[in-house]
Records
---
Amino acid sequence: MSSMKSRRTIALAVARKDVSIELNSRILTNQVAPFAAIVMVMFAFALDNEGILQRVAPGLMWLATLFSMLIVVQRSFTVESADGALDALRVAGVDTGAIFVGKSLALMVQLFVLEILLLATAVVLYGVEMTAVGLLEAFVTMVVATAGLGCVGTLYGGLAAGAKGRETLLPLLLLPVVAPVLIGATRATEAAFGSGGTAVSEGWPWIGLLAVFAVIFAVAGTVAFGPLVDE
Amino acid sequence: MTPNSGTGTSATRRLGVLVIVLAIALALFGLRFSAEDVVQGSTVRIMYVHVPSIWTAYIAFILTAICSGVYLSRRQRSLAWDRVAGASAEIGVLFVAVSLVTGSLWGRLTWGTYWVWDARLTSTAFLFITYVGYLAVRRLDGTHRQRARRSSVMALLAILEIPLVHFSVNLWRSLHQDASVADPNAKVKLDGLMLFSLFLGLVTFTLLFVWLVLHRQRTMLLEDSFADRGLDVAIAERRNEAGAQ
């Protein structure tokens, strides 16, 4: 029981460390969020039709999230491998499962902030309108999808960490794995936005898919993260 | 095995000859002896390559997963398992590519389009990309053991990912005709010679796969021992230089 408790302490400490690094460096707000916003603007240039934009807004929002996530994950492991911090933690005998949970939590917090901004961008730029229930559904979708993305991002980020050529490798590894999240989150958000006449109720099963994804990768990550970074 | 003995043995040479004979037989049965399809005409002959190649790819990826699991679970971790896993995945990627290309050509002829966004096609494309990623992980920097551990975990994660992708794409949409031969209630019936040609294709491709894996994992062994020896030689040279000064 005490080991459970110490693991939780470690996980929270790692998460707090990552979030405070982020608060000091402000990479998320000064670089990643503007990048995500410009992607949303570029989508509007490419599609050039307000009706279409409103229809496909959920998909664009989640695509922008996934692209930005690649940068955030990359960053999350650059801070670890730059000074050999991850090695130091492992040498100190820190449980790798707890490190995984901590880093995932920090990633989730950052992604969630980003998604709120992207949702606001979609409302402002693409003319999305939501009912109160729709807003609740969009919120739940974001929470559940972010849980899955945080776990899977940390897992694959850890895999590529410290190796040469990882900047180019991470998107190739990560994007196919998060395809179920893109599908599920987009469909659920469509229901929340009512895009193309979808009812709000049609979104909940997709949130179920997102939940399954999150649980599977939370478990897989806790088990597999150790062997991956243990070098 | 000594470094200059090559990658063949008398057994693999016999297997190689058998594969050549079977491939010629398959070409004859597939292109000449088997009948045209009532609906699809001669285009049905693509099936004798298309179905065996995806079959072989599935076998390859299952073998990769099994070898990766064995590698991780043994206390005495033998790199041989890792090499077979890697060799098998490489050849699997090749065969998925073949089945995607033949499939889209066949689709163009029968459905009128190279690609449809159907569940099975889409997840096959994901299968391809996933194992291309796996092969890229194998080429990351590091020792042989690091490579083996990283790629084994990747192979096991792929086993998690593929059903998830398939399931979600399936929810997304489905048009592909069900596997017609395996389905007992299928309306599509293959005549005897067509069925024989198809099974001949499966046998030929499976044996070709075995032959390729045997050779590939041996060249990997040679590559690994070359890398190890290269390091030893370089260290010895440095020592000599240091001694001479």
Note: The mean pLDDT of chain A is 89.
---
Amino acid sequence: MATRAIDSRNTVSAVAADDRRRWFRGQAFWLVAPALLLLVICLGLPLAIVTLRSFSEPQWGWQNYAWFFGTPVNLTVLQRTFAISAWVTLVCLIAGYPYAYVMTAVGPKMRLVLILCVLVPFWVSGVVRTLAWVILLQDSGVINSVIRAVGLSPVKLIRTQTGVVIGMAQVLLPFMILPLYSVMKTIDLRLMQAARSLGASPARAFAQVYLPLSLPGVYAGAIIVFILALGFYITPALLGGPRSTMLSTLIQNQVLSLLNWGRGGAMGVVLLIATFVLLALAAPLSRQPHKTGSRR
Amino acid sequence: MKTKIGQVAALGLLMITTAALAQSKPVAGEVAEGSLKGKTLTFVSYGGIYQDGQIAALKEFVDKSGVTLLSDGPTEISKLKAQVESGNVTWDVVDTGDFPPYVYCGKLFQKLDFSKIDTSNIPEGQISECSVPAMNYGVVLMYNTEKYKDNPPKSWRDFFDIEKFPGSRALDGSGDLSGGMIEQALLAAGGSVENMTVADIDKAMEKLKSLGPDTIFWKTGADSQQLAESGEADMIAMWTGRAMTAVKNGAKYTPAWQDWLVVMDQMTVPMGVKDPDAAHALINAYVGKSAQETLAKTTSYTPIHKDAKPEVDEVTAAFMTNTPDKLKLGYQQNIKFWVENFEVANEKWNALMAGN
């Protein structure tokens, strides 16, 4: 009797869910319409115009792309942009992964403190944070003063790629930690205990159980951080030197000071396509481990 | 008899025209009472203390003419281009950097009607078809007095001489190329600025690169000030306003005025503004003596009225560039050359900025 009751309740709820799904199929469009409209107007349309301009200014043709690939500095900077973004992603991952793990393991009060530590920098403008890094990293800055006081020789940090990577990683860290945390908190920690009870060492339990389960968070965080890093402008401009100029600075030059919107557009389109290609290459990587993980 | 009548007639005619001229000829700083009542002008500049000072300088004009003055910014030539292209120009008077009114004269900026602006008190060589100066300042060589105690650098030639004057250098990398700096680099490389060619730009770029990998290209005025106050670079090419503030804040730096680079902001009127006459009236008021004195007092930039005598403190006065002794030492870039070669020169400059 009791089981029957549960069964019927399940059937009722299943029917309700089915209804909802059917209703949803018809109405779904209207639910996403506002967001879609916003995307089309604020992203799709400008993107289309920029792409169009890259082919139409000053005349119709491939001239802007020919210029882009025919100018060595553009290629150097494009390559550098991807390299710096990759470094930033790696640094964020190394710093963010243990942090996100600790967030899942501590009590609710401590978790709140940890979440605040991630979010508070979010509320401070990027320029202010970058200027704070200038004061920390410069030759006569806080870090080098400490190094000198200890008796070591000072390190060149500001106006180097290292400085840029440090500054960018700090700004982007929340974008790594939050997706990681949202995946990690769903992982049942008893699985680790189970692995241990079956004789796995802590390292093996981590590598074969926890890590694969957390990979979706790693990929989500890495992709968000990497893509955001590609478009960084203020941090490399203030913390970097000429050898850490990123593509956005060159685009800004073309668009704002040379009024060459065709070339600026072409640079943007190249960056966009290069990003898509890279993501397409990374996509199979992100799917496979997840699949095998769930099969096990 | 005939001649006498002719003479009288001619004299009469002369008197009438003089009177008419006297009546319509503008006087810098003046505007007719209530002449712009009900009208609105939007003035665009770079914000901060500078724009506040400009608005303060225009207060008399606003009070007297009855115009409603709106303030917008910061100036972005790309935004102006978008306005002009779409035919909806909302910026009436725009303060720009030194090159744009030359590069985009007749395209984005109107040719000014100089029968409506009194330019008689503006320093020579600063007016173009599409602009009058908004203020003057300079790029000056500041050196660390503790580093170069007995043997201080005296000119840009020393700035570019790494062997005789070892130490790190910082230059203006904030935006468009600095024509004056490239010309100084060319001179230091043994070139000549007479009949400059594009190949000369390369020569100058090599000289700039020879300063070494530790050379700093500062991105903002605040950035350069920070370099001086923390002693990060031994010689810094600095805007005079920032140099002054750094010295006031205790930076141990002192200027070498030889060949300081003359720089100015420009006052312009975009193509297609709704009321060009009102825009001209604003500029005419802006270049007046008392307006320029207010501007100099509030911003510490150098006024562009020859007789302006702003009341400023000692350090500020030391960095004003309109005194006869400093005017003698100033260096004017070859604007014509840089405008003609604007794109190629910027491409080379940007490549240098990007580490190539």
Note: Residues 1-6, 290-296 of chain A have pLDDT under 50 and may be disordered.
---
Amino acid sequence: MERYYQKEIETADREQILAWQNERLVRQVRHVWDNVPYYRAKMEEKGLSPEDIKSVEDLRKLPFLTKDDLRDAYPYGLLARPLKDCVRIQSTSGTTGRRVVAFYTQHDIDLWEDCCARAIMAAGGTEEDVCHVSYGYGLFTGGPGLNGGSHKVGCLTLPMSSGNTDRQLQFMVDLGSTILCCTPSYAAFLAESIHERGLRDKIKLKAGIFGAEAWSEEMRQDIQNKLGIKAYDIYGLTETSGPGVAFECSQQTGMHINEDHFIAEIIDPDTGEVLPEGSKGELVFTSITKEAFPLLRYRTRDICVLTREKCSCGRTHVKMSKPMGRSDDMLIVKGVNVFPSQIETVLLEQGYPANYQIIVDRVNNSDTLEVMVEMSPEHFSDNLGEITNMEKALVAALKAMLGIYAKVRLVAPKSIARSEGKAVRVIDKRKI
Amino acid sequence: MTISQISVFLENKAGQLADITGILSEKQVNMRAISIAETADYGILRLIVDDAPKASSILLEQGFILTMTPVVGVEVPDTPGGLSKVLGIISRARIDIEYMYSVFGQKDGQACMIFRVADADGLTALLAENGIATIAGEDLGVH
């Protein structure tokens, strides 16, 4: 039997959803106009005033917001409520120059946790469950989001955070965890560890909610088989709150977007034109209920497809496919956003040639990141120890910039392939 | 009295070493000693050749990265304890050896070792004081 956290909302008819969206959008536009000079300037640039936005139909008149806007406005430029009304910040996994800090009022936290609660109940969660949250806790939204959702459902919540496999498995066995929340690659790793230690019969997991990075259908099957669970996808981004913007139901055929909180559009990433339902394009979100950090027409850069086909789970909210790629050069490695430009910055700072290549792969269901760097006369020495020390310094600088480990491979000069005079910067070997 | 060694950056991939030896043989450069220091991904090829300036300009032209390093060639009696005696002298003088390797076919009864230390001239003098001969480049066919 399908379970819902907020059945009336999740199964509301289209007219009702549209009525909510119309009313909330108009109110949200007025809210940012009144409180965020940055938005007002952007709207005025287009000759718009709040009166021009009367319904969702008018949404396409509004200018887009991009990650660059968020960077320009860092830290307070898009804040729509006084700081005294805010109770929390979360931040993106990124990184110098690209960091996004999102603010939340208590109301914003409540709605975010509601969204996560919907995801947990869609995965079969009830107050009888033991919800094992192995997303990172802290600035990353994964841990806090699912933690809050788990409380709302009434599960016994294990705030495990990531890492320390022994402890993860011990709690999983001793406390009988039934729902696992983490990144799919960590789930695959834990599944492997459970298998290796012969613990399969001692665990009680029945479902997993895995997100924050791309994963394939094959990976889903693999995790499901190894753990004997159903594995559900969840989508979100710090900019719009965190995980729970969209989540999978029992059908596992796409993620329902919480349309009472977010309006989704698909656009042509090159022209910005809104595309009809069923088209593949860039996903754009407008948050219509957030108070502190509302985003209008935020370009996610994720490429996907939306469908309003009736879902047998009974939910009426639009479904999005798994993201099929990016419309910019951002890579998501181990759930962390990586831009090639960040790697380039580090190389130049350390005096290496800017000719490099990034190789991303997935080994045993875990992402790997390797940076190929051409050796230069300035860095070469007859002393192997000196070269290894320089290599270590580069690895440390990359770690400081990216937040994750990147292997450095020193290669012969001019050995990195160039096509049409321009180097191929990124080779993504992952089959997702 | 030091010898000029060529140190070349070598990526650990098939054919790198063959490329270098091929280029040198084509240009009639004779190798007198060779040694490789390596990590999993890359290494340093150390060469003593008959014509170091010629070899280095050929390799540079081909896009290799290299550096010239002064090293000391030492004549070691080809008998048990021969090397040990030399190392004992160096050790007592508290000189660090960065690396060492041997040279191809020497005259009867003598082996030749190449030593890399921070102060090559200092080592030459130390060995001379202890009655141990260092080898001039010419003795190795280096000109």
Note: Chain B touches chain A at residues 5, 7, 9-11, 16, 37-39, 41-44, 46, 63-67, 69, 98, 116 (CB under 8 Å).
